Amino acid sequence: MSQKYTKSDAKDYAQEHMRGVFAANLTPFTEDGAVDEDGFRRNLCHWIDDLNIAGLFINGKQGEFFSMSLTERKRQFELVMEEVGDRCGTVMSCSDENLDTVLELARHAQDIGADWVIVHAPPLYFHESVDAVLEEYYRYLSEQLDIGIAIWHQPDYNYVVEPEVCAAIAELPNIVAIKYSVDRERYSKLTDMTRGKLIVSTSSEDLWLENITELGWQLYLCSTPPFTMQTAVDQRMNEYTRLAFAGEVEKARKVRDSLDPVRQALKSTRPHDKPQAQQKYWQDLLGQAGGPVRRPLLNLTDEEKAAVKAAFDGCGLKLGEAKAAE
Question: For position 2, what pLDDT does the model report?
Fold first, then answer.
């Protein structure tokens, strides 16, 4: 399958097409631990056809990539392209500690026609300075790949990539975006430094409206709210995004604020050590395929499920014809 743009056009293509609300998938597993391919396909169709999500971020940390084999990760990419095709943007997460694995996944994504890949900044042990290492890491990836690459950074590995370093990396021809999960001062600074060159985003839905109206952002990249806080008959995140893009800020704020009970229900019932498990159970309640998590993650207890179910029932999210789990 041919790529939609040349390496030299990667930035322009992303500026035009990498926009709107993108969602990061959770991977459904069966009770015996296999990937639930049928359930995943149903989720994909629901997210695109019913929820009108503009793009998908596949196999990130929310999707438990760390528990999946290389073969499973490639297959997940294939399932997305088979089911979704060109109906939404596709960002394939190729993050790994091993560079050969990163490149194998990225080349596979490139070969099957994905729009972009995203690669997390790697774990670096014993380093006092990471800047030169990271600049060389992304330079090498850029050299080896033709597909547009998004940087992914949050301080999981006890270092922070500063805006100046990100801006230097953004000079590479096919570095097109960044999921920059840092404080707002840093990501605001990077936004100003790289306009027209690097699409800056973060996973915070809480500040998505302000980031559109105050920073001029075009992309939510991305987490699970697009499909955990919306249903086929209740798409308030899409609605306030549309209003904000249209400059109708006060209307957008009212719609955004109306989702506070849903946000609170999700946040207040999420055990600190079970984020994926709680969100996957919430998916089950929405009628999506959630299922259990894989080791080393922990599943919810019956008591934790009861608390989530009570919060879900009272949050005001409209289900319409969707069948909530019993």
Answer: 63
Phi-psi map region of 65: left, alpha, beta (phi>0 left; psi -120 to 50 alpha): alpha
Name residue, tokens 């893009």: 245
What's the CA gap between 248 and 149, in Å, rounded? Answer: 32
The burial class, CB within 10 Å (0-12 / 13-18 / 19+), for 268 is: exposed
Q: What are the structure tokens assigned to 264, written together?
A: 């609170």
Task: Decide if pLDDT at 320 tops 90.
Answer: no
Distance, CA of 127 to chain centre: 28
Q: Is residue 56 part of a domain?
A: yes
pLDDT digit string (tens) for 262-279? 999 999 999 999 999 999
Whether residue 283 is contained in a domain is answered as: no
At 177, which CATH number? 3.20.20.70
Q: Which domain holds residue 191?
A: 7-230
pLDDT tens-place string over residues 99-110: 999 999 999 999
pTM as predicted:
0.95
With beta carbons less than 8 A apart as the criterion, state whether 308 and 286 touch.
no
Predicted local confidence at residue 321, as pLDDT: 56
- Per residue in 164-192, pLDDT (tens digit) is 999 999 999 999 999 999 999 999 999 99
Give bridge partners of residue 206 from the DSSP assignment: none
Contact 199, 15 (CB under 8 A): yes
DSSP letters of 96-140?
A: -SSHHHHHHHHHHHHHTT-SEEEEEPPP--S-S--HHHHHHHHHH
Residue 279 included in any domain? no
